[in-house]
Every structure is written in C-alpha cells, then in structure tokens.
Amino acid sequence: MSGLVSPHGGGELKPLLLSGEELRQEWEKAQTLERVMMTSRETSDLIMMGIGAFTPLDGFMGKDDWKGVCDSFTMANGIFWPIPITLSVSKEQANNIKEGQEVALVDTETGELMGSMTVQERYTIDKSHECKQIFKTDELEHPGVAKVMEQGDVNIAGSVKVFSESYYPEMFKDVYMRPAETRKIFEEKGWKTVAALQLRNPMHRSHEYLAKIAIEVCDGVLIHQLVGKLKPGDIPAEVRVRAIDTLVEHYFVKDTCIQAGYPMEMRYGGPREALLHATFRQNYGCSHLIVGRDHAGVGEYYGPFDAHHIFDEIPKDALETKPLKIDWTFYCNKCDGMASMKTCPHGKEDRMLLSGTKLRKMLSEGEEVPDHFSRAEVLEILREYYAGLEEKVEVKLHKYAEGEKK
Ligand SMILES: [Zn+2]
After folding, report:
1. What count of other Cβ atoms lies within 10 Å of the Cβ of residue 174?
2. Per DSSP, what are the bridge partners of residue 325?
3. Interval 191-195 mean pLDDT
4. What pLDDT, on the 0 to 100 scale, is given for residue 229?
C-alpha cells in the first residue's frame, strides 16, 4: 500500500475520461445527440470528473444531492461534498430532453464536444437558497453568486462520459497533472504526508513561507495552482508557472516540492470552497491542505478565518485530508524575517503587507516594489510580463480585489 490518503469516498480513483475504441465510438455517437452547451464552469467541472479529481462523482448532481450538499454537506449516498456540481439548461431546452435520453456536452467557448450524459433527472432549484448556503450571500456583486444566477432555469443530472481534457492550452502540459499522476510521483518519492498549497496568484514570500512551514511537518508539498478561469487582469497561468519554477529552483531544497496545475474554475466561495479544495486534494493524494487567511475569499463576504473554522464544523470522518491552519504571514522588519500574526508581536508599521492587487498596480506602472515582499527572481519575470503588455492594464482597486490581501 502506498500510505497516501485514500481517494474521497473510500474507494478507488474514478476518472471518467474515456480512451481508445470506447472513446471513438462514444464520440461518434455523440455527434448526432442533442447538444447541451456548457459554461466554462460546467466544462471545468466535467474535466475534474474526467481526470478523477472529483471522485467519487459519476456525473452532474440530481436534486437530492443538490439539496443535501447545500444544507448538510452530504450527498444522497451519505458521502461528504461541500459545493453542488450541477449542469443547467434553459426551460425550452429542458422541454426537448426526456429522462433516459443521452445528450452531447459541448463547451460554449470553444465549441468542443467534451462528453455525453444520460439524463436521469430534470429539476429546478431555488438559486437564491443555493447562494445563501454556499456563498453566505445572494448579492449579485459576488462573482460566484453571479454565475449561479446566470445559470439556466432547469438543472439536468445524470452520469457522464468524458471525451476530452484538452480545453486547457498546450502550454500547461508540463504542470497539468491528473490525480493518478501526482499519486504516482508521491509514491516514487516515498512521501506519505503531502500538503497542498492552493495558489491562484504569483507566489510571493508569504506563500513561500507557508510552503516551507508545511515542509517542516510533512514529507513534501504540492504547489497546486489553478489553471482554470480567473478574473480579468489576473496574471496568466504560464507566467505564474515560470515564476514558481524559478522560486523553487533558487529557494527550495531539491525534492521537497512539486508544482502542478488543476483545471477547476474559482467560485470565490471562501470556507465552502476551502472544503472543496481539501476534498479534491485528497484525490490528488494530499494529506493536508494549507489554509491561510481568507482562503478562496472575495471582498468582505467572509471572516479572515472562516475557512479555518468550517473544518471544525464538519463531521470528523468527512475527509481524510486535514487543514494545516496558518495565520496571516508576512515579512517583519523587527522580527527580521518571515512571521505570522501568531508569532510576531510587532505592529503594522514593521510588517510588509501588500495585496496582490496593489502589487499588480505597482508592477504595471513600473513602480519599485518594497523589499522583502517578493523574491527578485520572481519580480523579474513579472516585470518582463508587464513590460510586454501592449497596453498598460488598468488595475482597479475594486471591491473584489481588495479581498486578496495577501
Ligand atoms: Zn515582528
């Protein structure tokens, strides 16, 4: 046995991606089926199912699962799950689809046929209820709420077959890993405890510090960054990938960390999303998820440590993957090093705190970045990226962005 945590749900990894002759036949058959157009969020969820990251799901959720997940973190089969994974269509299209019918699943942005689904159920939901349960708000300014509200009026559910994971560009092929692949690497290295560092921004010193705290207590770290869709103005994944490679090369002990990307789209669901991050990290073979301040948060919707507390509110056996709860981290002049709110007794004036948004603004306007915020090698890559932009991106300190205080 590998000694790694088991895939979620207690069984084996369940990748739904077809291959070989079966793929050819199902793909051929799907050409003639009714086409359901998926949003980028739905496509990214389908890919997560395809690669086994959403084990044990076998398709988009039905109403009982939806309700159980919203109200008690539990699917109809009793297995823990924190955020509904659903697919919607318009009322008109729902009328054309019968239960038991197979439909083709097509990504709206690329037009690519991504999979097929046998429709087992059609149902309507109270979107506002979902939002209040998952996001703790139904305000449309919340980007996760906005996406739920934009969904079609009818959800369709059923088991899926996945044809493709190629929605993500070629450039990610080195970092893009399926759960079976990260597990294999961990096993080869003899790692049993692995902490995942969730990342969607360039990796600065505070993230480096989080990763190193984890390395002190685990066998290794998976620097796991999102290559799914982000907000406009965010730094593209290929630039972030290069920055991480440089940082790892210069500042980490060899064989203590691995960089990988995963294709999910952010929901900005704060604490609930932290639980989802832990759930699919278990499938990747990670025993721990590093949960810092305002994990997956946005704006002022969540308390800075709500994502810590929620792990104490779920049943103890819900997940094998546990949170590594770490306070707000920064460089402190008086401490003369990296520290956290838990270890540094000094005041704001001694601490180097810079939001991701503020940093982007400084870089895009060519300003000097204060010492100790980021490593020089990383800044060089970011500066090069900003210098290459044809037009200066206008970075606004809007409501959402202010939430990214790290
Ligand atoms: Zn201090």
Report:
1. 12
2. 291
3. 98
4. 65
Check whether 1 has a pLDDT greater than 80: no
* Residue 333 annotated as catalytic: no
Task: Give me the amino acid identity at 227.
Answer: V
Residue 392 or 216, more confident: 216
Measured in Å, residue 400 CA sits from the centre of ligand 1 at 29
Question: Alpha-carbon distance 257 to 186, whole Å?
Answer: 10
Catalytic residue among 183, 200, 240, 267: 200
Q: Identify whether 95 is a catalytic site residue.
A: no
How much distance in Å is there from the Cα of 401 to the middle of ligand 1? 26
SS3 44: helix
- Count other Cβ atoms within 10 Å, centred on residue 206: 23
290 pLDDT band (50/70/90 cuts)?
very high
Alpha helices in 31-157 (DSSP H): 40-50, 63-72, 91-96, 127-135, 143-150
Q: Coil, strand or helix: which one is 339?
A: strand
| 42: nearest Cα among 85, 89, 97, 98 | 85
Give the strand order in the sheet containing 288-291: 257-262, 220-226, 194-199, 288-291, 322-325
Q: Which residues surround ligand 1, an ion (CB under 5 A)?
A: 332, 334-335, 344, 346
What are the chain's domains? 20-162 (3.10.400.10), 171-262+268-403 (3.40.50.620)
pLDDT surpasses 80 at 172? no
Are 37 and 106 in contact by the 8 Å Cβ rule? The answer is yes
- The whole-number average pLDDT for the span 334-341 is 96
Residue 219 DSSP code: S
pLDDT band with cut points at 50, 70 and 90 for residue 170: low
Mean of pLDDT over the chain: 91
Closest CA to 30 of 105, 120, 122: 105
In angstroms, the CA 147 to CA 39 distance is: 9
Give 271's contacts (C-beta < 8 A, 6+ positions apart).
295, 302, 306, 307, 309, 310
Q: In terms of Cα–Cα distance, which of 117, 106, 111 is closest to 156? A: 117
Cα angle 191, 192, 193 (rounded to 5 degrees) comes to 100
Cis peptide before 56 (omega within 30 of 0): yes
**In this predicted structure, what is the pLDDT of residue 363?**
85
pLDDT of 393 over the 50 cut: no
Q: Which of 201, 240, 283, 360 is catalytic?
A: 201
**Ligand 1: distance of its center to the CA of 221 in Å?**
26
With a threshold of 0.90, does the pTM exceed it?
yes
